[in-house]
Each structure stands twice: as structure tokens, then as C-alpha cells.
Amino acid sequence: MPDGIADVVICGAGIAGISAAYHLAIKHGVKDVVLVDELPPLSLTSDKSTECYRNWWPGPGDAMVGLMNRSIDILEEIARATNNRINLNRRGYLFATADPARIKDFRQAAQEAASLGAGPVRVHSGRPGDPPYAPAPAHGFENQPTGSDLILDQKLIREHFAYLPEETLAVVHPRRCGWFSAQQLGMYMLERARERGVKLLQARVEAVDVVGGQVQAVHLQSQEGAKTIATRRFVVAAGPLIKTVVKMIGVELPVHFEFHAKVAFSDHLGVVRRDAPLLIWTDPQFLPWTEDERDQLAESDETRWMLNQFVSGVHARPEGPADSPVVLILWTYHVEPVEPVLPPVYDPYYPEIALRGLMSLLPGLKAYIRRIPKLTVDGGYYVKTQENRPLIGPLPIEGAFVIGALSGYGLMASPAAGELLAAHVTGNALPPAGYAPAFALERYQDPEYQKLLENWGATGQL
Predict the structure, then answer these.
(1) What confidence score (pLDDT) does residue 335 get?
(2) What is the mean pLDDT of residues 231-244?
(3) Cβ contacts of residue 420 below 8 Å, gap of 6+?
(4) What is the pLDDT at residue 272?
(5) What distance in Å separates the CA atoms of residue 358 and residue 437, rounded to the nearest whole number?
(6) Is the dihedral of CA 68, 74, 77, 81 positive or negative?
(7) Which of 273, 276, 297 is nearest to 287 (CA)?
(8) Which of 44, 416, 38 shows the shortest CA–CA distance to 240?
(9) Rounded distance between C-alpha atoms, residue 420 and residue 437, angstroms
């Protein structure tokens, strides 16, 4: 006999599972939702993010821009309803280059994003008739432009972003972007969901009963012992444990895992402006080692690779209030698929490599070369499909659903992903933007989609 009955059981209390519970309870009035996780809410990977958001995504198609625009709509609704408890800002992302060949890429990316619904492109070339450039405020999100500003006028770049390298030739500033407090967002949604009856259980999902192709019950294990909940709807929101959980119902998912870390340090010299946007350097680079360091690195096979050219994409932002000295750095220069290991093991070289890489974007940081500050690292696993798009919707077992493969954009996507998942679970109308089929598992059965995958271009990962 079951120990309880639930309308829906959700495995995983990260931001995706909490968002799904929120929308089920608040938007659809589902009464008996049970959210299960053996860890505290938001503690496995949801608290490891840089907490940024953007509607700046490539195609093919406008599905990702549509999903992110809807997610940002929900973020803004919550911010307005809570006196901006989630600390949402609209500082934007700032991509910078010193390579003249990359200017064409910036222009094409801005035009593509605009064509997909991210907003118009404003080009600032230093010529008469250029539109005015409106700097992003440090706080708030209301009454800000959408789209992007492509700045080719080096005088204008120096005026607003003097901390960038003097050789910077162009920047593109997507504007419906910024960051927010993930913990505040998650806890707000969880509090509201629990007010509507959602139950949070600290337990581990051990097994799922499937009879005649239909979910029947979920078996849990906790410190209090074993427990069985009868349910006909089961949602997998298990983050890096997603493959383990779906195997309980005999399903394989086309996902892989990448480990991504971030570094925090105290910028006591005040190099990084506290009102800066998220900053991204788009050029490959060699790290700024001293001659003595280069000689030492060259002596060992273990370290010689650090003298090679590194890929583009180092990015950083200030963290905390205006008087905080903390800066966050991310740089993904290894993207080999891995199997999740919990707790994760960090590359001991990563923190200093990330800081030195950021020196190409923020030359003032070279003041730290002789005395590297304390660097704190954490991170988590990206769960990714081949094309870096999520899985949201039914699984091939009646009553089973998935919200996952949210890669490195789980926080920004979860408000809209949870809304979409809840619509699938309840059988109600799907969001009108039309992006739902792009995230369904069934897309991989479509021959045309398979052809598209063969020549997939940019995935949107920074």
C-alpha cells in the first residue's frame, strides 16, 4: 500500500524543479504536488551559476529567443511584484574584440538576433546621424532599450568602457540582458508554491513503478525510512542526475555532461568597475606569464600546455552591492564530455588561468601578476543536448515528463521552462510563442531535424 498520494511528484528541487512546482501550483491550481530532493533546495548546481540572463541567442529558428524573452517577462513580473526582491538589473552583456576580422561577426550576430526577436540593432560608427548610445544603469530594469548597440567608434568605446584594452576596436552590447539573485528567485517561487500546498520532501528517489506503460508510483528513501507515493504524473528535474533517474523508467536521453567552474576573488585594487555589465573577450589569447614563469612552465609536460594559445570567451562581472570588491570569472577552455562526480573535483590550475585570461579583457588586472589574490572556485555540471537546447515535455512513458538539459542557462530559462513543463503536465494550452516543439524529446525522431543537426552552427554557449 502507498504511504501517500500525489497529483504530481517532481524529482529535483533545483531551480527547474521549483519553477515547475511554482507554475503547477500557482498558474494551474494543481493541489497535491510533491517536490523531492535529498539535498536542500537550490544547492546542487543552481547556486553555482553567475546568475546572468540574456535573450541574445543564435538560430536556427527563433525558439531560444522566444523562450528567453518569455522567461525574462516572468522575471520582470516577479521583480515588479516583490519590489525587486530578486535584484534584477539590465546592465547587458558586452562582447569586445581587438580583431578587425571579428567586426563582421559582431554585425552578423546582432542582425541575426534582431531577426529572431531580440530587438533592433543600433550602430554607432562615429558618423553624423548615428543614433545616441544610452549607457545601461547599474540598477533596475525598467524603461531600457532592447536589441543591441554595435559600437565601432573607438572614442565612444573609450568614453564608456575605458577599462577595456586600448586596442579594442568594437563592442556589441546586447541590452535585454543582465543578472539577478538566483537564490531569491528560487526561494520566492518555492515559498509561493508551498503556500499553495506544494510539499517539499528531503528524500532520494529510489525507483518508479511503471505498469502498462503508465507511471503508477514513486519509491523514496530518507532518514525516516522508505516511503511510496502513488502518482500518475512524475517529473524528472534532476539536473546532473537526470540520466540516472530516467533510466528508472527505461528511458535513455541524448545528453552529455560538461564540467564548468567559476572563480571569485576580491578586487581590492578596484580594477573592475562596480557598474560594469557582463564583460566577454571574444579573441583567442596567450596568457601573460613572466619570463621566469614561462621557463618554469616549459619544464614539465604537466604545465607546458599553459603556454599554448587559449580559446576566446573569458568573461566576468562584478558581484554584490556597490561596496563589494568581489568579481566573478568564467572561462570554458575544456569542454570534453565527462561523467558527473559529486562532489566535483576542480582543476588546481583553473583559478589562476582564469584570472590571467581576464587580464586580456581588463589590463588593469595585471597589477595582480606579482601577487595573485586568493581565488575561490566552485562549479557544476552542464547537462547538454548535442545542439545545446533543453528537453522540456513528455517522455515516452505515459505520465512521465522531463525538464532538463538546461546547460549553462538553467537559471535564466527556468521561469519559462517551468511554465512550459506545467502546461504539458496539465494538458493545458502551451505558450503561444510556438517554441514548445523545439524542446520536445520527439524532435529527434524528425528526419528534417536530424538533417539540421548535421550542420548545426553556433549553439549559443559563451
Answers:
(1) 83
(2) 97
(3) 67, 392, 393, 430, 431, 435, 436, 439
(4) 97
(5) 39
(6) negative
(7) 297
(8) 44
(9) 11
Say how far apart CA 57 and CA 115 lie, in whole Å.
11
Half-sphere exposure of residue 353: CA atoms within 13 angstroms, side-chain side? 26
Exposed, middle or buried by CB within 10 Å (0-12, 13-18, 19+), for 26?
Answer: middle
Q: What is the pLDDT of residues 202-216, one digit of tens each?
A: 999 999 999 999 999
pLDDT tens profile 310-363: 999 999 999 999 999 999 999 999 888 999 998 899 999 999 999 999 999 999
Architecture of domain 4-51+182-254+385-454: 3-Layer(bba) Sandwich (3.50)
Q: In what order do the strands lie in the sheet with 121-124?
A: 121-124, 148-151, 170-174, 93-97, 278-281, 315-318, 326-330, 256-266, 375-384
What's the pLDDT tens digit per position in 156-179? 999 999 999 999 999 999 999 999
Instruction: Count Cβ atoms below 10 Å from residue 446 Cβ, excluding itself.
Output: 13
**CB-based contacts of 133: which residues, under 8 Å, 6+ apart?**
122, 124, 149, 151, 156, 160
One-letter amino acid of 263: V
Neighbouring residues of 397: CB distance < 8 A, sequence distance ≥ 6:
210, 213, 214, 215, 249, 250, 251
The CATH architecture to which 93-178+257-380 belongs is: 2-Layer Sandwich (3.30)
Residues of the chain above pLDDT 90, percent = 94
Is 0.90 surpassed by the pTM of this model? Answer: yes
Q: What is the pLDDT of residues 178-193, one digit of tens each?
A: 999 999 999 999 999 9
Sign for the pseudo-dihedral over CA of 211, 429, 418, 82: negative
Listed by start position, the domains of the chain span: 4-51+182-254+385-454, 93-178+257-380
- Say whether 93-178+257-380 and 4-51+182-254+385-454 share the same fold: no
The distance between the two most distant Cα atoms of the chain, rounded to a whole number of Å, is 78
